Amino acid sequence: MAKSNIDEDRGVLIRHVPELGMEIYMYRDTPGVWLNAYGTPVAPDLARKAGFDVDRYLKLKQRRDMMSQAQAAIEKQLDLEASQPGARTVILERDGFKIVQTASGRCVVEAPDGTALTGTAQLNETAARAIFDQICPPAAPAPSEAEGVPSADVGGGAGRPGPGRAAKK
Q: pTM for the whole thing?
């Protein structure tokens, strides 16, 4: 027999086809792909003659291919979102906390260290603002003299000018 190109240490199933005097191989990590001793693929009919459960292994191969395609699509989508300019836009920031809008238009509330406080939930902007205001409420506006609050400059009493007031002439 010729030198085999099969890596037997990889975990391989080996079946013999008596009428042809050859062996058919299938690696455990690639079900549904049958090989001859040279490492080239063989037809499923030949694998069936060798005693492989071809229907079962073809279903496993189909599942594996579909999972691989789905994972590739997910990776492509994530790479696309990460590469888009403006994929993450800071809508509001206060005391280090942020509302960040993702490329999908949904929002996440983040702590100063970048941790998502809303977990994996992506919210609409209104809900994100409501949570954000609870986490770090806006500062109350300082009262002004126009609102009728007396000034800190208080007169000295009895008509005498106090600090910050000029004497009347």
A: 0.46
